[in-house]
Amino acid sequence: MNERSEPTNRSSNEIRFPEHFLWGAATAAYQIEGAARDDGRGRSIWDTFSRTPGKVYQGHTGDVACDHYHRYADDVALMAELGLRAYRFSVAWPRIQPDGTGPANPRGLDFYDRLTDALLDRGIDPIVTLYHWDLPQALGDRGGWTNRDTAEHFATYATAVYARLGDRIDVWTTLNEPWCSAYLGYANGLHAPGEQDPAAAFTAVHHLLLGHGLAARALRAAGARSVGITVNPADVRPADPQSAADAAAVRLVDGLHNRIFLDPLLAGGYPDDVREHVARIVEPTFIRDGDEKVIAAPIDLLGINYYAPSYVAGRPDGAGNGAYPGTEGAVHFLPPAGPLTDMGWMIEPAGLTRLLERIAADYPGVPLLITENGAAFPDKPGADSPDGPTQVIDADRIAYLDGHLRAAHEAISRGVDLRGYLVWSFLDNFEWAEGYRKRFGIVHVDYLTQRRTPKASARWYQEVISRNGL
Ligand code: FCB
User: Fold this and answer.
1) Taking the model in full, what pTM does it have?
2) Catalytic site residues (predicted)?
3) Buried b / exposed e across 208-229, counting CB within 10 Å, b at 16+?
C-alpha cells in the first residue's frame, strides 16, 4: 500500500522526512564480528580488557559475539529484507594491522571487501567507521592514545583501508565517540584500557583529535570525497534553570564533554575555559603548534550519537563524576529520573531536538547524520510455536524510536540540516562492560544458536523506511 496516495487518511501526528533521508542501522566490529583469531587478526585492547577479571559482566568477551564475520552474507540479506538503505559498520584495526603498524594484512581487508560488495549488491550504502575502540594491543602497550605516535599510526591505517575500499565506499568516518575512548578508557576506567588517570585522559583527547585530523587529511589526499567523525555530544541540563550555580556546572560539563571536541573540530581550536580547566590537571605540553590547524580541517559530515540527557547542579559538596576530571567539589550529577531504559538511561527525546538545534546553531555549515540512537530493554522472546518462530514484541523500543524520530523531525522542521538516521543497533550485541546482557538490537540474537529474529521494532522500522515517515 502506498501511504502517500491516501492523504485523507493521515492522522494529525503523521510526519514525513525529507526526500533522500538516509535510513539505516549501525554496528561495530568488536561488538558483532567474533572470529577473534581468524585470518591473522591481532589482539586489541578490548580482547585484553574483557579478559581482565571484573571488567566486563560475567567475563563476557567478543570472541564469538554474533559471529557476523562468518554470517555477514545472511546478515546483509536480512538488512535488505528490512529495507535498510545504509549500514554503518566499523573496521577492526587489528584485522588490518595486527600490531597496529606495518604492512596491511590482505586477509583482514578481504573481509571488509566481501562485506562492502554484499552491501552494494543489495543497494545498501556502506558507511565506514575506522575506529570503534578496538585499538591494537601492541599500540596499547606503548601507551595507546596517550602516545602521540598512535595518532600518526591511525592515519597510516586509515590510508590502507581506503586503498582497498575507497573505490566503492563514499562515506568515511574516522573515530566513534572519542569522549568514550578518552574518558571511559583513561579517566574512570570503565572501558579499555581501564586506566584511572585524569592527565592521561586529557592527553588521549588531544591525540584522538589529532588522529582524526591526520586521518582525515590522508583520506582526502587519497581521494575521499566525504569525510567525517562521530561524536556523542551530551545534552547537559541544569537541575534548576534559575540557578546561576547550576548554569556554571552546565558550562563546565558542556566544556569537558562537548566543546573540548566540537570547538577544535569545527571552530578552530580549544575554548579558553576548557584549556584553563585542563591546565589545572595537566600541563598541556601535548598540544603542539599546528595541531589545532590539522584538527580543524573542514569535514563533510558530523555523526551524532544520542541516547539520553544529563542533569547537573553546581554544588561545592558535589561528588563530580570520574568520567569528568575536575568536577569533584563542583558538580553534582543528578541520578537519572523518570522512565529509564535497561541501561538506566533517561528517555527524553526532546534532548535530541535541543542537541541538534544547538549544534546546528553553534557550528553552522556541517551536515549532520544521526549515526546512533536506540535503547536497551529486557526483551522477552516468546516461545517458538508450531505456527512460526520466536516473537519479540518490543513495544518499549518502538516507543523509544518513535519518540526520537519525531524529535529528529522536529529539529529538521526548525531548520537543522539532518541527513539521516541510523538505529543502534541492527543486532543485539556485546555491549562493552555490560557484555551480552543488554540488548539494543532491532534483531534479536540467540547467542547459543546464533539465530536472528527480527523484533517487532524491526518490522515497525521497515514500515517507517518504506513510508519515509511515521
Ligand atoms: C555507544 C557506542 C556503541 C553502543 C552504544 C549503546 O556509546 O558507540 O558501541 O555501545 O553506545
Assistant:
1) 0.96
2) 372
3) bbbbbbbbbebbbeeebebbbb
